Amino acid sequence: MPKITVDGTEYDTENLSTNGKAQLASLQFLEVQMQKLKNEIAVYQTARAGYAAALKAELEKTGTA
After folding, report:
1. pLDDT tens-digit profile of 2-16?
2. What is the distance between the alpha carbons of residues 40 and 65, in angstroms, rounded to a whole number?
3. What is the DSSP string of 17-62?
4. What is the separation, in whole angstroms, between the first and last Cα of the chain?
5. pLDDT confidence of residue 56
6. Half-sphere CA count of 32, side-chain side, radius 13 A
7. Residues in a beta bridge with 14
8. Distance between CA atoms of 11 and 13, rounded to whole angstroms?
9. How far apart (Å, rounded) are the C-alpha atoms in residues 28 and 35?
10. Distance CA 52, CA 17 (A)
């Protein structure tokens, strides 16, 4: 039986109305988008850390630190 938890309460989604199904689909879409954004942020943070470390090493080599 499909279930979803909203604000700490678990609901059965098997017999949702058409409107309820549309709301559920919208919520699921937003959750997928949020996960994609989290993944993009993680990539950004990793890349930024790498570039910052490379820049720091370059600055230290040239003595401009």
Report:
1. 888 889 999 888 889
2. 31
3. -HHHHHHHHHHHHHHHHHHHHHHHHHHHHHHHHHHHHHHHHHHHHH
4. 62
5. 95
6. 6
7. none
8. 6
9. 11
10. 52
